[in-house]
């Protein structure tokens, strides 16, 4: 049974033929669309390495069936920078040493982008730690990650204010 | 994962019809179903994707002033709906204490009610498990069972229902609306899940093909909104299932409790309404001694199913703390660490 779905990945509309409905969004991205920035850690919803945005919301792509994404807009780590200009969350992860080996980082950054857009952090580190608890880091870079998210939240709300003025 | 057919019905009628066929499973957020399929714990032949069905994603006011929550409303959207969270703050707190931000964005109301137990032998297909394979035995009885049930269990199965969301829902008299092949019906959430008895594989009253379409909360339950809490003891601060959890609500008039609500999570095969504890509180002053008596009554029938006698004591203490916090008033905004019994607050100063 071949199934065809229409979705947008990093701004580009695509028709994807799925020869097998078992394909998850994570495997679709990595194995078929060759977007290997999104990482597979546990493949069972427990680590957050596979986090992407679907219709603007952060989700675990390993527990999302690609076939169910008809009409969806997917954003992955490959789609967040504007050319050579890093996304503010990417820049903040570098400035704050928000990683060591880097394996969890694409998932952390996508999760942070989703979390900041949810709009309830108010610069509170406790809320950042709680909001990022679905992203594990085996290198234990948590202190840097928390600082990076706080800094990015501040920069992004500053930019939003300037844009509004 | 075993191969399966994928169907995407356009209407509830089509979904119910496809769901009635042998080997079908409904797919909502997929956060439990796909996990179980990857582990070979469940092997549906047909996935009926209900996520594109119309009209199941709204949070509406009912004519009596209550709330009707569509089965496809995402856990995060319900918790973050300001109107809803104002009326049912303990439900919002329970939702926010569950899983992770990513999972709450995907998980649905219907899927949360029907999530399966986290008993490790259920997940391990090499183990004997009456729930997964009726009649095969229960490796949990002689195994690692410290997290399992102290109420409502049977010799066949000692697993717990792991949902946070269901605990305040059952405390505040939620009703489940169901669409089936021949009719629509509704049932109190308290009656929705079944105790294991001889048939632990039958976990709810749903018949083949029946689809949850909504969960309703009555207007009367909103009266508890000023004094309610959900507290959850976990093995780590966040992103962990409950060891024991409690939802407590009070209506206090002129210094006396007129009505109380109490339910427990992760102690039984279903979200556990503790009416015996509630009844003792009517007419009492909202004080520790009364809460301790209620906690005693709530756990009167409890017995360990293994290395878990500690859960009975823990549940008693958590009930007392949940009622004390409820009596102190619902916090607004909700704490940064939802449902944490250790969050900063006067009565937790000693921990
Ligand atoms: C790592 C991890 C941590 C978690 N931690 C917590 C936690 O701390 N607390 C907690 O409460 N939960 C926790 N969960 C569980 C999570 O809440 C559930 O997986 C989720 O609520 C299920 O919803 P879903 O929409 O994804 O359901 P699905 O996985 O799509 O479905 C679950 C079941 O419900 C059935 N179903 C779904 N919708 C309907 C419907 N409308 N009518 C009839 N049947 C239906 C499906 O057929 C399936 O059997 C955790 C999950 C993971 C993976
Ligand atoms: S407790 Fe229940 S779910 Fe766990 S192994 Fe025994 S029968 Fe299976
Ligand atoms: S790979 Fe998806 S959560 Fe771990
Ligand atoms: S940086 Fe290595 S796992 Fe997070």
From TrEMBL, chain A:
InterPro entries: 2Fe-2S-bd, 2Fe-2S-bd_dom_sf, 2Fe-2S_ferredoxin-like_sf, 2Fe-2S_ferredoxin-type, 2Fe2S_fd_BS, Aldehyde_Oxdr_Iron-Sulfur, Beta-grasp_dom_sf. The keyword Cell inner membrane does not apply. Residues 3-80 form the 2Fe-2S ferredoxin-type domain. Keywords: 2Fe-2S, Iron, Iron-sulfur, Metal-binding, Oxidoreductase. It comes from the Bacteria. Gene3D superfamilies: 3.10.20.30, [2Fe-2S]-binding domain (1.10.150.120). GO terms for molecular function: 2 iron, 2 sulfur cluster binding; metal ion binding; oxidoreductase activity, acting on the aldehyde or oxo group of donors. This is (2Fe-2S)-binding protein. It holds the Pfam family Fer2.
Automatic annotation (TrEMBL), chain B:
Gene3D superfamilies: 3.30.465.10, CO dehydrogenase flavoprotein, C-terminal domain, Uridine Diphospho-n-acetylenolpyruvylglucosamine Reductase, domain 2. Residues 1-222 form the FAD-binding PCMH-type domain. Keywords: FAD, Flavoprotein. One of its GO terms (molecular function) is FAD binding. It comes from Pararhizobium mangrovi. This is Xanthine dehydrogenase family protein subunit M. InterPro entries: CO_DH_flav_C (IPR005107), CO_DH_flav_C_dom_sf (IPR036683), Diverse_Substr_Oxidored (IPR051312), FAD-bd_PCMH (IPR016166), FAD-bd_PCMH-like_sf (IPR036318), FAD-bd_PCMH_sub1 (IPR016167), FAD-bd_PCMH_sub2 (IPR016169), Mopterin_DH_FAD-bd (IPR002346).
